[in-house]
Amino acid sequence: MSDVITVKNLFKIFGDKPERAIESLKKGKTKDQILEEDKLVVGVQNINFSVREGETFVLMGLSGSGKSTLQRLVNRLHEPTSGEIIIKGTDIVKLNEKELRDFRRNNFCGMVFQNFAILPHRTVLGNVEFGLELQGVDKEQRQEKARKIIQQVGLKGNEDSYPSQLSGGMQQRVGLARGLAVDADILLMDEAFSALDPLIRREMQDELIELQSKMKKTILFVTHDLDEAFRIGDRIAIMKDGLIVQIGSAEEIISSPADDYVRAFVEDMDRAAVLSAGTIMQPAKEIAFTGDGPRTILRKMRKHGLSGILMTDSKRDLKGYLLANELADYIQKHQKKENLTLDKSLVHEASKVDEEMALSDVINVYHESDFGPIAVVDANNRLKGVIVRGAIIAALSEGYEIDTDNVSDSEATGNEDEKQSGDKASGDKAE
């Protein structure tokens, strides 16, 4: 996946002779010191990041952190003091006014703001088609396209309504539809849902997530709300004092905060809602294959002290779960048979989750599971790893790191009841 936006060594200083502030920053002075001594405001300093094609990249921080300034720099609504802003291979800092205007028209969907910024004298249809009108698209074509987008954002039937006749959430949908209608690749959203009440705000987040799954825009989204950032962002950049403190996925940030500032941000987050099965899974200690005989499988379990074992085929397609005590009893019962094959009744259905499942849902699966660990599989049902109780507990603790070396083999494949039956099975002989 290629990078659509790349920002390198970007500074924005507000005030006269901004180069003084850059020199002061390089000498280690803070933003507040520069404001007091030089009367210069540091908007952003030494910013470096990239946004991938089709990614929702969130700039998050408190008021004054520089997030909105940074987004406006990306569109050159603010002129950078120094640095590069490379959009689809073009450094837009080097463009003249006409070149920049043409570049914006062809590459940006425009900006969706907190205050909606829709035109009160135009209908919904008139607002949504406005960008296309500026592009010179003929009336019939632009209205046809606008109507399709209006339907996509859930406003069908409101084409002839005016903004004053719409709720706040509906007005925000108009702003989003207008941005999408021009069909450019990049969408900039600045606190787009902040003015909405919590219920409508969540609905708009859901709407954006659903639209993004279909349209695959490259979105640069600004918010001060960590829950919103974690909910919609593929990656999040946390900002403070004009600096990017940490960039990562929600899981990376909540599990490995870069410093005390980020740690304070995430300490009240519901970790179970953010972390996924893929984050906390660990390799299976051992697995049985469909071609293994019962004696071979029991030998694998005894070697690792396992009370049960997951079974896959040679392509790691998950087939089920076997219990050591049942297998030992089966072998004992047929001990005189040389070429003993595995009875299908011994293969139980394994509890499984996909890699993307939230930890909160994994916990429910774990509680409902009759035995064994939780198998983590990919979209093709191939075994990727396992989740055990110890890993779940560790994940719910702040600043966790799963130490697979300290998870017992019996825990890695079963619950407490199984461990007792497994100990008994290990004493049986497989002659």
Defining traits:
CBS-domain, disordered C terminus, 431 residues, four-stranded antiparallel β-sheet, 2 domains, 19 helices, Rossmann fold, alpha/beta
Describe what you observe in this structure:
This protein is an alpha/beta fold and 431 residues long. It has helices at residues 19-26, 31-38, 67-74, 97-107, 124-128, 130-134, 139-152, 168-181, 198-215, 226-232, 250-255, 260-266, 271-274, 277-280, 294-304, 324-333, 359-368, 389-395, 416-426; strands at residues 3-14, 41-52, 56-60, 82-87, 90-91, 108-113, 186-190, 218-223, 235-240, 243-248, 287-289, 308-312, 318-323, 352-354, 374-377, 383-387. 39% of the residues lie in helices and 21% in strands. It has a six-stranded mixed β-sheet with strand order 6-7-8-3-9-10, sandwiched between helices. A four-stranded antiparallel β-sheet has the order 2-1-4-5, sandwiched between helices. A three-stranded mixed β-sheet has the order 11-12-13. It folds into two domains: 3-269, 3-Layer(aba) Sandwich (Rossmann fold); 278-426, CBS-domain. The protein is elongated.
